[in-house]
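Morning. Coffee machine broken again, so started the prediction first thing and wrote up yesterday's gels while waiting. Chain of 214 residues, entered below exactly as on the submission form.
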Amino acid sequence: MSPFPAWIDRIRPLLGLAALVVPVYGLGLAYYFSSPTTIDIGYSPKQPVPFSHAVHAGKLAMDCRYCHTTVEKAAHAAIPPTSICMNCHKLIATESEKLLPVRDSYVTGNPIPWVRVHDLPDFAYFNHSAHVTRGVSCVSCHGRIDKMEQVTQVKTLRMGWCLDCHRHPEQNLRPKEFVTDLDWVPGEDPVQLGKRLREELNINPSTDCSTCHR
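Came back before lunch.
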């Protein structure tokens, strides 16, 4: 005689189904919460100063290079020193409490502790100048940052995403003079324009990264 009650036999099929479904469900959750889209896209940390790109780069149409002074000549797009902020804010919003950290930084010489949004792993080397000077716009990696009140990561910045662009560079190329013009719209088919620019720049997607990183 079985020591288990009769209803155990009735739920055996359900237990078998659960034994199959639960591991698959768990793996699905693990994949979702570890995917680049889940853990990177949408990251938007609060900053010590509520700097609005929507106001500065959007409404006031300030060129990205006014603040990020090294983006065309160095690997890193420099975070602007406080002195650049104060070029305007010596005269504008001089009593604003929001700008108190900026004024303190200017007086003391201590940098503003900005929180990095787009942070690549230490083993990954990305050269801003190699991309910007060849016609890759800010918008390709950072999205419409000129419409952001608070900077938000909109691309995964993972290796697969980078390689997709390197395999098909024409999808993100534009004339170099329009790299920082985030409203720019091509006057011809964007893919054909990209292919023409790729040929002019001798960018061959079949080669390795040394095409740009000489």
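The CA atoms of residues 125 and 136 lie 17 Å apart. Going to sketch it on the whiteboard this afternoon.
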